[in-house]
Amino acid sequence: MIRVVIADDQAVVRAGIAAMVGAEPDMTVVGQAGDTETAVALVASLRPDVALMDIRMPGAGGLAATTTITADVPATRVVVLTTFDLDEYVFAALRAGAAGFLLKDADPERVIDAVRLAARGDALLDPAVTGRLIGRFAGGPGPAEAERLAALTPRETEVLRQVARGLTNVEVAAELGISAATVKDHVAAVLGKLGVRDRVQATIFAYESGLVRPGIR
């Protein structure tokens, strides 16, 4: 079972997410929190697989909670829930090690996918905001980024470009006309060559290196 903690200061939102997650046969909600301190304490004591974290909560806020959790309980993967007006905070959360982010109005299926992906060490970025979010903070490529990019094969580079758009392995496979298993192998190779932990970090690299730019495929 995938054990999930839900952190959101709105009780109705928490209840809705909990009902959705709890209805899945492979998931269980082990705790709920309405403020930052409770969220951090729950994760520290319960050690869930995934924490769904609202970015704006009473206390130090979801960003601080994410930073603490990823540092102190690295086995727990944090998926950030966000809205458009909090871009800079979400970017900082990704930098801190969050496993991805979703808009609060995302389809229920997308939220469930994000939980499953995070639990197995992967990540899901909402394609509706990926380019806008990361592009806003991306700098120009430096020598180190260029060298790391040069280590990728043309196919690996294309896979990285599609991952940075927020596509899942299945969606990348359909886009490139290859199997999902092949995409998985390419993603693993990309992560290894770039020296990054997961798809989120790879996406940040893709934007910062200039490989991908907002609005351009």
Automatic annotation (TrEMBL):
Database matches in InterPro entries: CheY-like_superfamily, NreC/VraR/RcsB-like_REC, Sig_transdc_resp-reg_C-effctor, Sig_transdc_resp-reg_receiver, Tscrpt_reg_LuxR_C, WalR-like
Name recorded for this polypeptide: Response regulator transcription factor
Keyword Transcription regulation on entry: yes
Start and end residues of each HTH luxR-type domain: 145-210
One record GO biological process: phosphorelay signal transduction system
Organism: Actinomadura syzygii
Record key words, sorted: DNA-binding, Phosphoprotein, Transcription, Transcription regulation
PANTHER family with a match to the protein in the record: TRANSCRIPTIONAL REGULATORY PROTEIN NARL-RELATED, TWO-COMPONENT RESPONSE REGULATOR
